[in-house]
Sequence to fold (81 residues):
Amino acid sequence: MDKPVIADKKPAVLTLEPGTYYWCSCGVSKNQPFCDGSHKGSGFEPLEFDMKEQGKVALCNCKLARTPPFCDGAHKSLKQP
Ligand code: FES
Fold:
């Protein structure tokens, strides 16, 4: 697998509590936008990130953002259904 799967064409807008999170970079996880271990053998690895305090975030679901795990609007270049 050399390209990630597009899990969704819009970001996951969530309020996260402080803690450590693992963003799915492969797009295969059934627990988007977070890793569920499905990447094993794909060559992709989850991206670890920390939330220092509670906050609202937009996490990339198209897996094309240049600012992962955060959405940078890259999904807008994709054909919407
Ligand atoms: Fe996608 Fe782990 S399931 S990076």
Q: What stands out?
A: The radius of gyration is 12 Å. The mean pLDDT is 96.
